[in-house]
Amino acid sequence: MHLSLVIYLCNSLMNTTPQAPRFLERVNTLAHRYPRQFWLMFFGMLISTIGTSMIWPFMMIYVSGKLGLPLSQIGILLTIQSAVSMISSFTTGPIVDRLGRKWVMILGLLSHGGSYLLLSRAETFPAFAGLMALTGAITPLYRIAGDAMMADLVPPEKRVDAYALLRMSNNLGIAVGPAIGGVIAATSYTLAFYAAAIGLSTYSLLLFFFAVETMPTRTQTPLAESAAPIRQEPFGGYAEILRHRSFIRFVAVFSMVQVCATLIWVLLGVYAKENYGIPENQFGLIPTTNAVMVVTLQIAVTSLTKRYRLLPMMAVGAFFYATANASIALSSHFWMFWLSMVIMTIGELILVPNSSTYVANLAPPEKRGRYMSLYGLTWGVASGLGPVIGGLLNDWFSPQAIWIGGAMVGYISVALFLWMEKKSKQAE
Question: What SS3 state is found at 16?
Answer without folding.
Answer: helix
